């Protein structure tokens, strides 16, 4: 019994199609965004210390609004609400705090960032894509 003519070509086409589909699926699920942005979950801080002061933060396109910025050293939890239409996060860097950030926060969702602030100047920004360059950055001064 010999296979019908053309069956080998159809089998090769199906195998190739399956392989290309698997590659496309892998490419779509591999993430994306800014290749320079932190991607490991270890840098995403979500726990909040028991004795911290909560600071309300609102993010949208393309600004960060802090209701009552901290002005004295201590433990703080930034409670970040994304009131925009695209995903954001909140990153912070300053004395004793090196590039800590929330996970991505989808529109209408919120996240937390717990930090111990020492006296000094801190920069807060959104590390998603080019949001920082579009104006999603602010500074706070802690004494």
Automatic annotation (TrEMBL):
SUPFAM superfamilies: Cupredoxins
PROSITE patterns from the UniProt entry: PROKAR_LIPOPROTEIN
Gene3D superfamilies in the record: Cupredoxins - blue copper proteins
Signal sequence, start to end: 1-26
Keywords assigned by UniProt, alphabetized: Signal
Region (Disordered): 31-52
Transmembrane segments: none
Superkingdom field: Bacteria
InterPro entries found in the cross-reference section: Cupredoxin
Protein name (Swiss-Prot/TrEMBL): Copper-binding protein
Organism: Nocardia cyriacigeorgica
